[in-house]
Inverse folding.
């Protein structure tokens, strides 16, 4: 018999909430691909309970394989009639697995040192920018074509990576100022999706906001939590909360669904009900829909020609923040746009933070599933609302030579503004 652990100390009720009804199965991306019980939320919780009861060792390879094959997309939480907080259970389980496993220096460096360090991120960005401009990235893709992890990483990189630069700390409102907001640009947002931040700033300043880029706020901690480094994630969360605690900024805006979901859940993660600042955190779609729907309508945004735009919902917007179709409803304000929701819009595209790098086989299978659906639409643009999804879809469309353009919904709206 394995030694009993204290993984779920203080949250035992969350583990016992699962009644093993199986309603989550058909909503779990990995189960849909494998049809294996242990690749489902119910199967993974069965393994967690075995560890908690001392009948399965925390070091068992079977446990690591199935718990780390989960995307933590939280689709099962939406489907669950018992309100199981699966993502919380998964984060604690992975944290225990990592703490009891041999040290992986490279992985630990990425999640506990690189993420959240502006200096190290700048060094990474510099070398990636050089590699992109000298076509080394393309050469790496050919050299490591047999290594799916490295090949997947290379394919995700945009063709044009900017050199590190200091963003302006404030972008002034255009016209009459109506307020002040902070834009959470993300720890690597300006490395891989700088254009999404630029588009967000453009829309907000044209609506009359001074936009602060908040250089004092680093990584939100989401990637560290998903990777099994819960202590680091909590430390990053406390840094973010400390930075916004005494701020007079009205709202903190995120255009990355995973970051927004993480920050809105800080009270749960840190075990405190006294964190009020999270109420100021809004996804950009949520903020625009609640406060500026009529203003955006008045802009008279329009395409010159009829344009079809299917919308792919990011998991951490749909399941994490319960924002189902708000970006699509905003896109519907555009004249000559026919906006639809993609089939299986509640199923992950395979990005899931760094999942597409650490688990490329499953990520590619899920991406293929999503690309087949996009292909049936025959659309000019597919829109999403998350940086990771955007990079994943762009990579897949480029590889398959599909001429559909993947864009963050805020890029589409900004491109039509004067």
């Amino acid at each position: 018999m394995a030694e009993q652990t204290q993984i779920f100390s203080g949250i035992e009720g969350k583990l016992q909430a699962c009644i093993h009804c199986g309603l989550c199965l058909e909503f779990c991306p990995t189960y849909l691909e494998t049809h294996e019980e242990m690749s489902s939320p119910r199967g993974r919780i069965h393994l967690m309970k075995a560890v908690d009861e001392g009948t399965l060792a925390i070091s068992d390879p079977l446990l690591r394989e199935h718990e780390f094959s989960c995307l933590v997309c939280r689709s099962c939480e939406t489907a669950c009639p018992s309100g199981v907080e699966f993502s919380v259970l998964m984060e604690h389980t992975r944290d225990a697995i990592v703490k009891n496993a041999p040290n992986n220096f490279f992985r630990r460096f990425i999640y506990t040192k690189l993420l959240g360090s502006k200096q190290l991120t700048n060094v990474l960005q510099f070398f990636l920018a050089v590699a992109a401009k000298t076509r080394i990235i393309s050469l790496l893709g050919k050299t490591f074509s047999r290594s799916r992890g490295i090949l997947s990483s290379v394919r995700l990189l945009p063709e044009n990576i900017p050199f590190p630069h200091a963003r302006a700390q404030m972008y002034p409102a255009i016209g009459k100022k109506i307020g002040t907001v902070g834009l959470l640009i993300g720890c690597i947002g300006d490395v891989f999706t700088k254009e999404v931040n630029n588009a967000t700033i453009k829309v907000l300043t044209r609506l009359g906001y001074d936009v602060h880029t908040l250089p004092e706020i680093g990584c939100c901690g989401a990637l560290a939590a998903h990777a099994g480094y819960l202590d680091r994630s909590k430390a990053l969360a406390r840094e973010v909360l400390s930075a916004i605690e005494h701020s007079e900024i009205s709202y903190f805006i995120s255009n990355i669904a995973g970051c927004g979901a993480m920050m809105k859940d800080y009270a749960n993660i840190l075990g405190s009900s006294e964190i009020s600042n999270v109420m100021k955190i809004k996804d950009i779609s949520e903020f625009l829909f609640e406060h500026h729907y009529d203003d955006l309508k008045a802009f008279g945004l329009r395409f010159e020609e009829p344009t079809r735009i299917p919308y792919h919902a990011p998991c951490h917007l749909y399941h994490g923040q319960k924002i189902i179709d708000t970006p699509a409803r905003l896109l519907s304000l555009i004249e000559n746009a026919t906006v639809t929701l993609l089939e299986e819009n509640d199923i992950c595209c395979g990005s899931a933070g760094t999942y597409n790098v650490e688990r490329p086989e499953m990520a590619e299978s899920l991406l293929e599933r999503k690309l087949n659906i996009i292909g049936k639409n025959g659309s000019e643009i597919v829109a999403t609302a998350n940086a990771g999804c955007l990079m994943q879809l762009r990579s897949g469309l480029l590889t398959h030579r599909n001429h559909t353009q993947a864009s963050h919904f805020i890029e589409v709206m900004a491109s039509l503004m004067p």
